Amino acid sequence: MLTDGFNRPHNYLRISLTDHCNFRCTYCMPNENMDFMPAAHLMQQDEIDRIAGVFVQLGVNKIRLTGGEPLVRKDAAAIMEKLAKYNTKLTLTTNGVRVHEFLQVFKKTGITSINVSLDTLNSQKFTQITRRNEFDRVWNNIELLLDNGFKVKVNMVVMKGVNEFEIPDFVALTRNLPLHVRFIEFMPFTGNRWLGNRVFTYAQMLELIGGHYPFTPLEGNPNDTAKKFKIPGHSGTFAIISTVTEPFCATCNRMRLTADGKMKNCLFSAGETDILTALRAGADIVPLIQQCLSLKEADRGGQFTASFEQLDATAMKNRSMITIGG
After folding, report:
1. CATH fold group of domain 2-324
2. In 41-98, which ranges are continuous DSSP H helix?
3. Where are the domains of the chain?
């Protein structure tokens, strides 16, 4: 089992398939006219397979595919089929717009749980946030997944002054639908114009929800990123990912591979380790993986101040969210 310098075991690998996306979400992508990585710079099918295989040998038992938008990659289905041979839980995070094209691929490769990003239930606001008019397609695909027995988590990034007042509407979805709605505190990344006063906090979310519904906390799992809750009589649940105000770093078990084959030991790590170049040179990548993990900081890449209100996001050393992988 892979462990870091704080003796935290790591068995969860997130693999970004591409930095391309068919949306242009303002909090994720710095601008509309992004310069995407050339295809030759990305990990190829067999390279993803080989690198994933090494991580599995080292104890990884869960793999999540991310992007950008992973389903815009032309060989996404083939990659899923390659990774399905490993004895891991395989899943992915998507914006949902192409889910209907991959439904049979998900079933074939044993994917049973899918995260769908959705930040508003208002179609006009959806277009403003994503710069794309695709709300109906995304919502129809969420229903399609539910109708086919998939566990669906809906991820909402909450931004003060933008969509925080929709939180009760999202919670209302769990009354009749077996959805797992997750509210995510707005996090700082290069180019996303983050400010502390735009963070709608975990405490504020609970206060808002409590004004509409009674709820009870649910018991969590050891490596959970989300604090989970349930409203009596509702089919689904809701949860809050409080990265900014109440981080969960003490039990972190996650590692990341960017689409160009760089390993990040934390979403907020300033440093990266070039796994892909070493693989292409025929080197043993195990020592690089172990070294990268040994450098993991105790808390959020070592880049957060004690008070998020005082955090200068422009001083943080990181990539934009889309080039890291969601």
Report:
1. TIM Barrel (3.20.20)
2. 45-57, 76-83
3. 2-324
